[in-house]
Design brief:
By secondary structure, this protein is of the alpha/beta class. It is 20% helix and 25% strand. The chain is built from 6 helices and 15 strands. The protein has helices at 28-44, 89-96, 133-143, 161-164, 217-225, 236-239, and strands at 2-7, 47-52, 68-70, 75-77, 102-104, 116-119, 122-127, 149-154, 165-169, 172-175, 189-192, 204-206, 209-213, 229-233, 250-253. Strands 2-1-15 form a 3-stranded mixed beta sheet, covered by helices on one side. Strands 3-4-5 form a 3-stranded mixed beta sheet, with helices on one face. Strands 6-7-8 form a 3-stranded mixed beta sheet, covered by helices on one side. α1 links the parallel β1 (2-7) and β2 (47-52). Bound molecules: citrulline.
């Protein structure tokens, strides 16, 4: 069964971190309703949703993706680049502990999960304002024994790597080439966002379906024409907090194919 860990929208979301957007009023009631619809979409696509309670003092805690990277063999707790987000970790650690052995990144590493794109056994990691070289090296050392390769990708002009590129199908990437070097992804089929929609590259693949924001109709039409099966959701309020569809959940198989993950430290 596919698990989706999420967290209710904090009543303090208006105090969120912002890097590339001007602060705008966020309608909390609407944000809560939209978030509920997003979770309903994940349930409809076959996920068992585990929703953690809101963290009233942690404005960005709804964006659970940034706190961890969950692979089949282990989960890596990150060390978010924004200081205000580090207290989000303990509750995510408790939520993941029943499912995976846990590993941690240590100072001076900083990494946001939004900077890690997984495509099969390849991890692309954005070097962004939130993720540094130490983190990329520590992550590579943790995952290499499990057969993953790590490729660093320079990110500029947006918050995270996955603001600029996500996987929408097997070997198929949706990207905004203005924010990353497309040549880092040689060998993949690449679909560019519609140029009127620079924020459209963040899509969430769930099995054969793709959760995609209603805010980007031109890119949606492009994806549908290519035969992708979209499940549209409106996340307009969380978009004002610089969030999108991948950031609001941690998705993983409850029991990865091949049985229970090996314990950390044991041979891969
Ligand atoms: C932040 O700046 O950390 C939040 N306001 C938005 C985080 C969005 N996370 C993501 O895209 N993975």
């Amino acid at each position: 069964m596919r698990i989706a860990i999420a967290r209710a929208v904090s009543p303090s979301i208006a105090r969120c971190e912002l890097t590339h957007l001007e602060r705008q009023p966020i309608d909390w009631d609407l944000a809560v309703r939209q978030h509920a619809e997003y979770l309903a979409a994940l349930a409809e696509l076959g996920c068992r949703v585990i929703e953690l309670p809101a963290e009233p003092e942690l404005p960005d805690a709804v964006f659970v993706e940034d706190a961890a990277l969950v692979l089949d063999e282990l989960a890596v707790l990150t060390r978010p680049g924004a200081l205000s987000r580090r207290p989000e970790l303990p509750s995510i650690e408790r939520a993941l502990a029943p499912f995976r052995p846990l590993a941690r990144l240590e100072a001076p590493a900083t990494l946001d999960g939004g900077d890690v794109l997984r495509a099969g056994r390849r991890l692309f990691v954005g070097r962004s304002g939130r993720t540094n070289r130490e983190a990329i090296e520590q992550l590579a050392a943790l995952v290499r024994p499990h057969g993953y390769s790590v490729t660093e990708v320079a990110v500029s002009g947006c918050l995270h790597l996955k603001s600029a590129v996500t996987e929408v199908g097997e070997g198929m990437l949706l990207l905004n080439p203005a924010w990353i070097e497309a040549r880092s992804f040689a060998g993949f089929r690449m679909i560019a966002v519609d140029e009127r929609e620079p924020h459209a590259a963040n899509a969430l693949r769930v099995g054969e379906r793709v959760v995609f924001p209603t805010a980007h109709p031109h890119t949606a039409a492009r994806l549908s024409t290519l035969g992708l099966d979209l499940r549209r959701v409106d996340l307009s309020e969380l978009a004002k907090a610089e969030g999108a569809v991948t950031c609001c959940s941690l998705l993983f198989d409850e029991r990865p194919t091949g049985g229970r993950a090996p314990r950390l430290g044991s041979p891969p």
